[in-house]
């Protein structure tokens, strides 16, 4: 319990640090939100510019703005989006679901298929399957995510129109909840595949290495000597022990997944937080951008916390303080 | 369904044709039998801030805004005003008042009637809050003698008023919703608008999608024909094109990329048109910072104009999808003066002008160097032209450094604070010169920090006087003569070098009938749009 509390406090401190740092960094960029809004309005007068600035508090010193912002955040108020003129929390609430759906699907796909590929490869480390897995995973890892996305779109949405080009739900959608889920799943395939492919490589290589090591261990030889079936040896005895490094990496990769999602969402017009972040940067929509960064940081911190906990479930030898006993 | 005038006309025509024994050739699209119903998906690369055009300019708000809100007038494809919420309108002889008579039975989407009080409230709101201050600045009062009559009193004659009463420029907004004392710029109803247009808002997902549904009590019987319009935000134009090809979208307005336009032109399932953008009048030009040497010298500016090959930009860089533009007023406008000099490319003349201006060639052939900025994000229309200048202007001894801006605010800040030599810029005419043209040339509009003001810092008393007179002149011919003179002067003095009309195109499914083709295109009511055959 103490451990969890410690990690929670640490996470909280990290979150405050992230907020302060982001706030200061963003303000260093030239140009302000009032200019963007005025630009989108078709060029506004000084009066309107001044009114926008004072309405959003942009005319106050930066440290005062920081203080006001921190106080608001503590009260659970992430402010109003300059651009959309709506509460940041409401805008993020509408976007966080799609991002989590995309990230988790990609993660599950990458871990599931990656580990499976790794295990297959590990059984004959010098075999052709192992080599194929190594090549495929390296290509998947090396290809930029936007390139993979565009290629998949061209192949499977344009030339061979199996999947939709963009979005999460068809613009024409009009049906019940079940149809909705089907429509979303249909739209989810290409983005999740694109995002998953990068990480697939890592899980495949990682599980291959871990499995090779574990399969050479004494207890595996013992199991085999006892006459345990090979499938049982691999998946019950070996994999269970090889899974620890995979869990660690899965937790650490969560942050990368979220930043990868930013690009994937942009390529596929997936209505998640990544696109919201991208657009809020271009528009200097500080409250919205800070809100998105806040939630991204929160998601990463929570994911790492969960990893730590699951680590301890998977390996009872790890004690209260997180050390190996 | 009530018989509409158009349907009646259609049946009368076909009856006449069959009675007279004439061969029944295919009737024009708008006289065919119309089956109402269906939905249309329109894409937009930009996400609107909100949906109230009364306090927000720009096409992102205007497309949904003109479906939700009705204006007093429509404009046809010949620049002529047509009745809409106003069934009639009359300007007094002295030009100091305009009397508007509203149609009977128009209601807002909440069921309340549209009255002259709403007209007064809307005009005052736009006058006091819209960035285009010149539209209603001369309005001193709006009187409302009865529920359906509004008398607009003007402090001076204002011929631009009628155009300013059309499209997204004057949405009639309900006073009982927006007049509740809350700040209009951040009014919650801007994102949950109540208008009297053909479609009402069903769902607004910021940055994602706007869903509009047929308003059954729309004041024109039987309209709109469509049940639903979905405006889908797709920031990437190429994804938009793929979506159209895949049948996920039906109308792609505001296409500019020559690659996308050419690609869709080759597909017989789609029609591609550049009609419907005359009102917006989107121009692309090279602006000079006339406040600093060497560009304060008109000869240097003319030399640059002679050095730039406009035809190369239009035909090669834009692959022929753009139209050349010579002056400050879009060439399809009745106010355009075709007699202005074009500055056809002439490198010798350019060199001679630079010599004359006292800029001899240095040892390395360079006379002086300038920077050129461009609006980030629009490669073909802006960045590519900047890159072209970098290779073209050294031919006459002008070194060019292309200066990129990471994003729009950075560019806007540089240009509006005069931290530039040359910049490419895109500015809209918005129908009447008073609304979109004067702002670029009036010396009173040199306003630091304000983008799309007179950022060239051009000041000429004669131009100021002509524009002031043209704003008041009620006689269309005299008004045209004033603008002719204005165009001649600025083509001579060249505070900016016009390059091309931004090649906005609309691609749409050919099974759609009555595609909006007025000067306002898709930023005017789409109540007549229908499916000729179900998609």
Provide the CATH architecture of the largest domain in chain B: 3-Layer(aba) Sandwich
CATH class descriptor name of the domain at 96-314 in chain A = Mainly Alpha
The low-confidence runs of chain B, each spanning 5 or more residues with pLDDT under 50, are 1-29
Overall number of domains of chain B: 2
How many beta-strand segments of chain A?
Answer: 0
**Average pLDDT taken over every residue of chain A:** 84
Q: What is the CATH topology classification name of the domain at 96-314 in chain A?
A: MetI-like fold
Distance between the termini of chain A: 17 Å
CATH-wise, what's the superfamily of the largest domain in chain B? Periplasmic binding protein-like II
Named CATH topology of the largest domain in chain B = D-Maltodextrin-Binding Protein, domain 2
Beta-strand percent range of chain A: under 5%
Radius of gyration of chain B: 24 Å
Helix/strand class of chain A: mainly alpha
Instruction: Determine the N-to-C terminus distance of chain B.
Output: 22 Å
Q: What would the average pLDDT of chain B be, to the nearest integer?
A: 92
Shape of chain B: globular
Characterize the largest beta sheet of chain A: strand count, sense, and whether it forms a barrel.
Answer: none
Q: Number of DSSP helices of chain A?
A: 12
Number of helices of chain B: 16
Percent strand of chain B: 15-25%
CATH class of the largest domain in chain B: Alpha Beta
Q: Explain this structure to me?
A:
The complex is a heterodimer of chains A (325) and B (535). Chain A has 325 residues and is mainly alpha-helical. Chain A has 12 helices and no strands. The radius of gyration of chain A is 24 Å and the shape is globular. Chain B is α+β, with helices and mostly antiparallel strands. Chain B folds into 2 domains: 239 residues, Periplasmic binding protein-like II (D-Maltodextrin-Binding Protein, domain 2), CATH 3.40.190; 220 residues, Dipeptide-binding Protein, domain 3 (Roll). Chain B is 29% helix and 20% strand. Chain B has a 6-stranded mixed sheet with strand order 14-18-13-17-15-16, with helices on one face. Chain B has a 4-stranded mixed sheet with strand order 1-10-9-8, with helices on one face. In chain B, strand 2 and strand 3 form a beta hairpin. The interface between A and B is large, with 51 and 51 residues.
């Amino acid at each position: 319990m103490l451990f969890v509390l410690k990690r929670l406090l640490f996470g909280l401190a990290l979150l405050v640090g992230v907020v302060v740092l982001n706030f200061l960094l963003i303000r260093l960029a030239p140009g302000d939100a009032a200019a963007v809004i005025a630009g989108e309005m078709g060029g506004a007068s000084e009066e309107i510019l001044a009114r926008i600035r004072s309405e959003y508090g942009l005319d106050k010193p930066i440290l005062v703005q920081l203080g006001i912002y921190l106080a608001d955040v503590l009260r659970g108020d992430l402010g109003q989006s300059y651009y959309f003129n709506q509460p940041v929390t409401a805008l993020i609430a509408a976007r966080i679901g799609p991002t989590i759906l995309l990230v988790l699907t990609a993660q599950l796909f990458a871990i599931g298929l990656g580990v499976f590929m790794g295990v297959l490869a590990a059984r004959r480390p010098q075999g052709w399957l192992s080599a194929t897995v190594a090549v495929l995973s390296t290509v998947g890892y090396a290809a930029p995510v936007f390139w993979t996305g565009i290629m998949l779109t061209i192949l499977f949405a344009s030339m061979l129109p199996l999947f939709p080009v963009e979005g999460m739900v068809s613009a024409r959608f009009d049906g019940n909840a079940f149809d909705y889920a089907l429509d979303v799943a249909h739209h989810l395939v290409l983005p999740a595949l694109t995002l998953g492919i990068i990480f697939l490589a890592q899980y495949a290589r990682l599980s291959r290495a871990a499995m090779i090591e574990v399969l050479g261990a004494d207890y595996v030889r013992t199991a085999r000597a006892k006459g345990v079936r090979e499938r049982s040896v691999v998946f019950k005895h070996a994999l269970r022990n090889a899974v620890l490094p995979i869990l660690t990496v899965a937790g650490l990769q969560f942050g990368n997944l979220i930043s990868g999602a930013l690009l994937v969402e942009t390529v596929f017009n997936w209505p998640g937080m990544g696109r919201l972040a991208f657009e809020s940067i271009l528009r200097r929509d500080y409250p919205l951008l800070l809100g998105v960064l806040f939630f991204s940081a929160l998601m990463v911190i929570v994911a790492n916390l969960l990893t730590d906990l699951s680590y301890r479930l998977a390996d009872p030898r790890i004690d209260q303080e997180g050390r190996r006993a | 369904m009530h018989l509409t005038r158009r349907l009646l006309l259609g049946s009368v025509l076909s009856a006449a044709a069959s009675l007279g024994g004439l061969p029944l050739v295919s009737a024009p699209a708008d006289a065919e039998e119309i089956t109402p119903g269906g939905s249309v998906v329109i894409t937009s690369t930009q996400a609107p801030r909100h949906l109230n055009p009364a306090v927000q300019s720009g096409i992102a708000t205007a497309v949904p805004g003109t479906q939700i809100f009705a204006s007093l007038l429509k404009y046809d494809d010949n620049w002529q005003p047509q009745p809409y919420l106003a069934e009639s309108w009359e300007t007094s002889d002295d030009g100091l008042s305009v009397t508007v008579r509203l149609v009977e039975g128009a209601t807002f989407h909440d069921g309340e009637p549209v009255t002259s009080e709403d007209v007064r409230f809307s005009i005052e709101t736009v006058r006091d809050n819209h960035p285009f201050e010149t539209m209603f600045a001369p309005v001193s009062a709006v009187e409302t003698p009865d529920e359906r009559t509004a008398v607009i009193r003007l402090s001076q004659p204002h011929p631009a008023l009628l155009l300013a009463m059309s499209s997204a420029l004057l949405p009639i907004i309900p006073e009982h919703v927006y007049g509740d004392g809350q700040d209009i710029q951040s009014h919650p109803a801007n994102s949950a608008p109540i208008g009297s247009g053909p479609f009402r808002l069903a769902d607004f997902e910021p940055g994602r999608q706007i869903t509009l549904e047929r308003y059954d009590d729309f004041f024109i019987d039987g309209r709109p024909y469509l049940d639903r319009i979905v405006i889908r935000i797709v920031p990437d134009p190429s994804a938009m094109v793929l979506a159209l090809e895949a049948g996920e979208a039906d109308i792609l307005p505001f296409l500019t990329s020559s690659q996308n336009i050419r690609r869709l032109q080759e597909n017989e399932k789609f029609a591609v048109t550049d009609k419907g953008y005359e009102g917006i009048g989107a121009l692309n030009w090279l602006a000079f910072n006339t406040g600093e040497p060497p560009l304060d010298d008109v000869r240097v500016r003319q030399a640059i104009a002679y050095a730039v090959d406009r035809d190369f930009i239009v035909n090669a860089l834009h692959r022929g999808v753009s139209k050349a533009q010579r002056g400050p007023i879009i060439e399809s406008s009745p106010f355009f003066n075709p007699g202005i000099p074009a500055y056809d490319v002439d490198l010798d003349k350019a060199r001679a002008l630079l010599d004359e201006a006292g800029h001899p060639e240095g040892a390395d052939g360079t006379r002086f160097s300038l920077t050129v900025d461009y609006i980030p994000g629009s490669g073909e229309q802006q960045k590519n032209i900047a890159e072209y200048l970098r290779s073209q202007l050294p031919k006459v001894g002008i070194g060019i450094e292309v200066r990129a801006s990471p994003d729009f605010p950075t560019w806007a800040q540089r240009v509006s604070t005069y931290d530039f030599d040359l910049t490419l810029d895109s500015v809209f005419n918005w129908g009447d010169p008073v609304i979109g043209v004067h702002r670029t040339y009036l010396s009173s509009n040199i306003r630091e920090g304000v983008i799309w003001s007179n950022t060239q810092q051009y000041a000429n008393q004669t131009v100021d006087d002509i524009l002031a007179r043209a704003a008041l002149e009620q006689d269309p011919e005299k008004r045209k003569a004033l603008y002719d003179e204005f165009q001649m002067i600025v083509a001579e003095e060249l505070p900016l070098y016009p390059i091309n009309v931004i090649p906005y195109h609309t691609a749409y499914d050919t099974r759609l009938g009555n595609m909006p083709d007025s000067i306002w295109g898709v930023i005017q009511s789409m109540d007549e749009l229908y499916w000729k055959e179900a998609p």
